[in-house]
Specification:
The chain is mainly beta. The protein contains 2 helices and 24 strands. Strands 10, 11, 14, 15, 18, 19, 21, 22 and 23 form a 9-stranded antiparallel beta sheet that branches. Strands 1, 3, 5, 6, 8 and 9 form a 6-stranded mixed beta sheet that branches. Strands 12, 13, 16, 17, 20 and 24 form a 6-stranded antiparallel beta sheet that branches.
């Protein structure tokens, strides 16, 4: 383990403060080394920035008590700071909860079958399986991850993406492909409360990348155009299928109220003249999004990855259509203002 030090500090919110939502978090690592700084609320990762010595995050939190924990890691040290706060309801000041209360009220349990619940559930819990060839110290190998969230650091473009993997236990199917459609990116305007559909495609671009994305090494993927205008693909042999819309979308970095990405996928028979082996297929798929400084240009500052918005849960692809989502919003926020996504007849 890295040695612990007291390099990171939280300037806002103050410890034991009562605040209103959105909660502004400001923290800085004064050790003099660029670090990966992560923000957690009640143990849930809500924001992360790499190659930095400070972080700012705006957190939409429901009324309740929270422990804000900031962790800064680099090659020289790991530093932790925390601040306990109470988020007040609009126009009221709630009584403080007991210090030992670990409950997180930011995501209530599913109360109904709805688009909001279906999307939010993909940011809760663990992955349904482990993607083949992905080191377990990659946070997204285990479950959903919130990275930059609704703070794009002034960057003015975004793109959604998906990742298709064979499962770690192996994929014995040889006559099964994954059919992909309706890849959509929704942007919630903070100023108006309106949802904008920024990206919408049945034929995303993509390539086969090494499963751990080492060196950004990739090759052409096994992609097939289907008769209905969608695509199908496979993954395996040490490679995933990493796919994304052909073009990035413009955003106003000062008006980000929320992001939702949804893509639909199912298993199909590769060659109808051969046996249907979809029942033994083991494919996992997940979705996410990345911010970019502009509509064109390469990744900024690091050749190995682009800082992400968030990453949704990896789930098994099944014979019926299933949705695979990512969002920066809580379930209650989605229920109050759901995006205009049509998931009728689509399994969660």
């Amino acid at each position: 383990m890295f040695p612990l030090s007291a390099a990171v500090s939280i300037s806002a919110p103050a410890n034991n403060a009562t605040v209103s939502s959105p909660v502004q978090v400001n923290a800085k690592d004064s050790a003099g080394h660029l670090s990966t700084i992560s923000v957690y609320t009640n143990g849930v990762l809500v924001s992360r920035q790499r190659h930095t010595n400070s972080i700012e995050a705006s957190l939409d939190l429901d009324p309740g008590t929270y422990t804000i924990r900031v962790v800064s890691r680099n090659d020289y040290h790991t530093s932790v700071a925390s601040s306990k706060i109470t988020v007040a309801a609009a126009g009221t000041t709630p009584p403080p909860s007991s210090p030992g209360d670990p409950s997180d009220t930011s995501t209530p349990p599913p109360a109904e079958n709805s688009v909001a619940v279906q999307i939010a559930s993909d940011m809760q819990g663990k992955n349904e399986g482990t993607p083949h060839g992905v080191p377990l110290n990659y946070d997204w190998a285990n479950g959903p991850v919130m990275e930059m969230g609704n703070n794009s650091n002034g960057w003015q473009a975004i793109t959604s993406w998906g990742a298709l993997y064979e499962a770690a236990e192996g994929n014995p199917a040889t006559n099964t492909r994954v059919n992909i459609r309706n890849m959509q990116t929704y942007f919630l305007q903070k100023s108006s409360g309106k949802w904008l559909l920024l990206q919408n495609t049945n034929q995303p671009d993509g390539a086969a990348y090494l499963e751990d994305f080492s060196g950004d090494s990739n090759k052409p993927a096994d992609v097939r155009r289907e008769a209905d205008g969608t695509i199908s693909a496979t993954a395996g042999g040490g490679y995933n299928f990493h796919f994304y819309p052909a073009n990035r979308a413009s955003i106003d970095p000062n008006d980000i109220g929320g992001i939702v990405v949804v893509v639909q996928a199912r298993l199909i028979v590769a060659d109808p003249s051969k046996p249907d082996d979809r029942n033994i297929a083991r494919y996992l798929l997940g979705s996410g999004a990345d911010y970019y400084p502009a509509l064109t240009g390469s990744w900024p500052g690091n050749a190995d990855y682009n800082p992400g918005v968030a990453i949704g849960k990896m789930k098994y692809v099944q014979s019926d259509w299933r949705s695979f989502a990512m969002t920066t919003l809580t379930q209650s926020q989605l229920q109050n203002n759901p995006p205009p996504v049509d998931l009728s007849g689509i399994a969660p």
